[in-house]
Amino acid sequence: MIETVSFKNFKALRDICLPLERFTVLVGPNASGKTSVLQGLAYLHSEDPWSLLEGERHPSVLRSHGTGEPIEIRCTGTWKGRAGSIRLLAEDYGDGHWGRHVTVEYGDDVITYPGASSQLSDEAREVVDAVRAPADLLRLDATKLAQSSYSASLVPRIEPDGDGLAAVLAEMLISRADDFRRVEDALRAVIPAVERVRLERSAVKRPEIQRVTINGQTMISTVEREYVGHRAVLDMRGAANLPAHAASEGTLIVLGILTAIISRKGAHLLLIDDLERAIHPRAIADLVAQIRKLLDVFPELQIVATSHSPYLIDHLEPEEVRLMSADETGAVRWARLNEHPQFERWKEFMSPGEIWSMVGEDWVRERGAQPHA
After folding, report:
1. What is the dihedral of CA 290, 174, 256, 53, to 10 degrees?
2. Domains along the sequence of the chain with CATH
3. Where is the ATPase AAA-type core domain (predicted)?
4. What tens digit of pLDDT does each residue of 3-26 get?
5. Is the Cβ–Cβ distance between 322 and 362 less than 8 Å?
6. Residue 91: φ, ψ to 5°
7. Reading across the β-sheet that carries 194-214, which strands appear in turn?
8. 26, 151, 174, 335 - which has most CB atoms within 10 Å?
């Protein structure tokens, strides 16, 4: 499990170290660095982070404004009873050249590599995989979640926007029926109007690149091919055979979150942007309850999420909440909710969400510099 994540010179996270729980929720105003924490964790835990850090995500764009220092993202923690860490470093050598490498420390082993971990030896890769859990960053879109989908992968995955949900559910129904039923049961616990989740065969059209060579000259064109995939269908109370695109946004987002949790096996870091989006306050309480049950079922699962909802905070332990705020220079500060000077007195007659709504985040900035946990 990751115990701390630290950032230096990454966007607004100029020098900050956040302690993490198995379930951690980041709250604060817009532009306070919450999503940047999720993005940094996703980059660090990618099998090939440098393939992600290109174009609009090039290190020169992501580096904090006004500094020439390297970007550094580092996680420390304990995995399978052994302490370890993983660090991503991007250094500007000038003239547009950047030095980039990842360093993993696990027990007595130290592995440093410049590119994708797939290029490592089996022995070195085993060390890296022990520390770097697969990560999924979700910013779910109901339209994408509802689409029919096809996957050529043996074990498909949900895309960050929710595309591929039907393909993942179909694989679970065929290969892991117990997990599929677990998704159904958890969904019904959060959205009682859902009676059943079903999959139907569906045509899926996909644009693909086609290369044709004639007389030594290669021509590239885009063609649309049709595959047989699946679409999700919901049996609702009083409305059977409801296609996913006719279901509510909140229902689809809850289904996507639960499927993302249950479809993965082994170590898994799940990063969820706007956990409560489109979900009724009562359903938020039930969703948190289901997430806690799944954390018990999957001991190597860790979740970091962002939120703007005091209703969600009401159902968290105070130590699971991180308040984030940017100071007058744009640098991000953080604090635990229970570190507010009046928290112990107010908690006797106010809920955590009420306390947060009342105190806001100004007091976090006023605490001054505190980059380390």
Report:
1. 120
2. 2-134+264-366 (3.40.50.300), 148-247 (no CATH)
3. 23-314
4. 999 999 999 999 999 999 999 999
5. no
6. -115, 135
7. 194-214, 217-236, 239-243
8. 26
